[in-house]
Design brief:
CATH architecture: Orthogonal Bundle
Shape: globular
CATH superfamily: Winged helix-like DNA-binding domain superfamily/Winged helix DNA-binding domain
Number of strands: 2
Structural class: mainly alpha
Strand content: under 5%
CATH topology: Arc Repressor Mutant, subunit A
Strand order of the largest sheet: 1-2
Number of helices: 5
Length: 102
């Protein structure tokens, strides 16, 4: 399996109402130092809607500033529709919504 296939497979596992970080996905895909590469791959998501890239945020919980599938604000809107809550600083409340995979 290629790194990109492993990334997309990992992202598909993120449950509804949860988020993961780019670093988590990089680690799950076998290259813990490739968080930026994960971001690039998700920006070019071949199956939006099937691969829920909107559920991936940075390590502080910040949504992508230039979400590729709808622009600024769309990622937040999609997460809020799943019940994900945000802190006053605009970041996802990771204490409530960070996915703890096994």
């Amino acid at each position: 399996m290629t790194f990109s296939e492993a990334v997309y497979k990992a992202v598909k596992q993120i449950p509804y109402g949860k988020v993961a970080t780019y670093g988590q996905i990089a680690w799950m895909a076998g290259n813990p130092r490739a968080a930026r590469a994960v971001g690039t791959l998700l920006h070019h998501n071949p199956l939006p809607g099937v691969i829920p890239c909107h559920r991936v945020v940075n390590r502080a919980g910040r949504p992508a500033p230039g979400f590729a599938f709808g622009g600024i604000g769309e990622q937040r809107r999609m997460l809020e529709a799943e019940g994900v809550t945000f802190l006053p600083d605009g970041n996802v409340d990771l204490s409530r919504h960070l996915w703890r995979w096994e």
